[in-house]
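> forwarded from #structure-qc
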């Protein structure tokens, strides 16, 4: 019985170790991911006035980039990890006004239809690294 336990324990440890390496390899710093997309984090903003989300990109469990018009991008940072963002096809916002603020939430429908509210911590304007002339 103890030998069986030892083998099982080693298998679990190896699986955990290999999973940790995969996660570490996939987790590039936020600024590096933004740079690959052609943006740098700009100034914090209080709100996105008259926002219209034309699209979004998942960056990690605490950050998304939203497209608010043809050339305007914002980085949305959440207060806590929002793991359902990685598999979400659509997102929404809890905003009841014509502006998006850090008092709003990202609404995500996760696996199995479970709805999760992810409170916004901060909003940043994204600056293009390749401005149009």
């Amino acid at each position: 019985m103890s030998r069986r336990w030892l083998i099982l324990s080693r298998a679990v440890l190896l699986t955990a170790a290999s999973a940790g390496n995969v996660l570490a390899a996939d987790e590039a710093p936020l600024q590096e991911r933004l740079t690959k997309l052609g943006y740098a984090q700009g100034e914090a903003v209080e709100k996105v006035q008259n926002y219209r989300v034309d699209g979004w990109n998942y960056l990690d469990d605490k950050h998304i980039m939203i497209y608010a018009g043809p050339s305007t991008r914002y980085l949305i940072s959440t207060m806590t990890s929002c793991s359902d963002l990685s598999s979400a096809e659509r997102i929404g916002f809890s905003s009841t006004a014509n502006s998006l603020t850090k008092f709003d939430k990202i609404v995500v429908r996760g696996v199995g239809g479970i709805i999760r509210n992810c409170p916004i911590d901060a909003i940043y304007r994204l600056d293009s690294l390749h401005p149009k002339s």
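QC bot note: Residues 61 and 85 are 6 Å apart (CA to CA). The longest strand covers residues 115-128.
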